[in-house]
Amino acid sequence: MLRLVAAVLLGAGLFGATAPAIAGEKIIWGSPNPRGLNVGWSPYFLALERGFFKAEGIDEVEVITFNGTATLLPQVVNKSVTIGSPNADIPIISQQPGRDSMPVTFFYNFMRASVWEIAVPEASPIKALGDLKGKNIGVGALTWANVPTTKAMLKEVGLVDGEDFTLVAVGAGGPAFQAFNKGEIDALNLYDTAHAGLERSGTKIRRLALPEKYSNLFSTGFITHRSFIEEKADVLAGFGRALAKGTVACYANPEACVEAYYKANPSKKPKPGEEAEKIAKDVAILKTRGMSYLSFPAGSDPQYGSYPENAFSDYVDVLHAQGGVTTRDIDVEQLFTNAFVERFNDFDKGALVEEAKSW
Fold this sequence. Notes:
Blueprint: H1 2-11, E1 25-31, H2 42-49, H3 52-55, E2 58-65, H4 69-77, E3 83-84, H5 89-94, E4 104-111, E5 119-121, E6 135-139, H6 147-156, E7 165-169, H7 174-181, E8 187-189, H8 192-200, E9 205-207, H9 212-215, E10 220-225, H10 228-231, H11 233-252, H12 254-264, H13 275-293, H14 311-322, H15 341-344, H16 349-357
Parallel strand pairs: 1-2, 1-3, 6-7, 6-8
Antiparallel strand pairs: 3-10, 4-10, 5-9
């Protein structure tokens, strides 16, 4: 009975004290991945299943997919999309002096460390970034937001795009894996969960070591039109708190989190007789992504959604080194806000962890 009461309180959002947004709100979320939200996004699906968004007055979240950040951002700018989940490269590039800057602001830091990797076949003679000279490197699409950062990394080791290496658009999932296994590309530059899926399919890979300043860059945050920071403050705060709750609960009970993903995506459910193997595979992928979601300083009280002070200035340094921006003199304060962090974390994390363990 106590567990039942706790579940009712949790579904009503009573682990947090802040008043919800006005009921009936709808959020349109633009994802830059044309394949949609994979199992690595299970914290969102768990939050959806457990009613965390409803508790914030958000009745519906509609996810629309785009082919990369470059195609997503204009929809945020014209307010057709309420929030987007891109990398930071293109908004930073638009903020250079003399450019028409995009009126967008990052308000929730979700993937707190880089999820981007460069993988090669286990038996490949390629051992380091410098060995990619003359090679073909597969990327999801040339519009994907990791591309400028990849070019910057390779430029640091003396490799110039178009001269010393070639980026090849291979998509993600099956087409990318096929190109990799057939040797049509020499390396694959996708995100952590994609490479984990490739491994789980039986392909042996090796990840190249990346410079620390690149691996520490945050990967994906939630962005919105600058005017919405005030006009939709309660909605944005509620969305972030629901997502924070979903993240906390997900890693307290990864199996329940993966089951929530299956419930929302029936085509991803295990086939009869394969449940244990499929769940174990997807839990392993989810835990791989957790290294980014849960990247907080050791011993600190996790503040979900928060941006470190140097998060964007570090990005500027990387892009400047690659030539993506012409100056380090960029007003990064316009690009992000931590104004909602206190509200994102306004719930009893310990109580939620204990409750989630019983699901």
